[in-house]
Amino acid sequence: MCCGEVVILISLAILSAILSLSSSCNRRNWLCTAPWKKWGGSCYLSTQRHLTYDDAREACRRQVAAPRSDQENDFLASLAQGSVIWVACTDRRQEGLWECEGFQDGQGIFANWRKGEPNNCGVREDCVYLQLSYKWNDVRCEIEIQAVCKR
Ligand SMILES: [Ca+2]
Ligand SMILES: [Ca+2]
Question: What was the pLDDT predicted at 2?
Answer without folding.
Answer: 58
